[in-house]
Write a structure and sequence with these properties.
Length: about 60
């Protein structure tokens, strides 16, 4: 199964991915990084949209 992965060094905490894929992504407790809390929380197309929208290309698929 393909699962999304966030490169925390690249994430600038813009908040976009949780707003697109709220079932998959969320901000961490202090709002400084995004994290994947449910790899199967959204349709693949929504996750792909979050990947494509990330301004720093911090999200990628992991096989
Ligand atoms: S869209 Fe990219 S930069 Fe923005 S919070 Fe998500 S991983 Fe971080």
């Amino acid at each position: 199964m393909k699962t999304p992965k966030i490169d925390k060094d690249k994430c600038i905490a813009c908040g976009l991915c949780p707003s697109i894929g709220a079932g998959t992504f969320r901000m961490n407790e202090d709002n400084t990084k995004a994290e994947v809390y449910d790899p199967a929380g959204d349709e693949e197309a929504m996750v792909q949209m979050a990947i494509d929208s990330c301004p720093t290309q911090a999200i990628s698929w992991e096989e």
